[in-house]
What we know:
Structural class: mainly alpha
Largest sheet: 2 strands, parallel
Low-confidence stretches: none
Number of helices: 5
Shape: flat
Number of strands: 2
Strand order of the largest sheet: 1-2
Order of helices and strands: HEHHHEH
Mean pLDDT: 83
Radius of gyration: 14 Å
Amino acid sequence: MEFENYTERARGLIQSAQTLATKLNQQQLTPLHLLKILLEDPEGLASTLIDAAGGESARALETVTAELNKLPKVEGNGAGQVLSLIHISEPTRQEAIS
């Protein structure tokens, strides 16, 4: 992932997801971390779109949080290192840098 090619907003969201993974003592950055950040983002459209489509964004956030709590946690040496498991496809990458 060529991080510098993403928009400032996309980089900020990914950095927030990494911070969340670190805060939760999880070494793997997963799509769940990013989804939680998107659902909590007051400037974002994720929760607005879910609600507009008849869904319940609050319930989605609760579910994502519960799933994140099931992920392995690491303590001690190396606990602050985060490995990204997020793969962004080329079309998505092109949209993010536009």
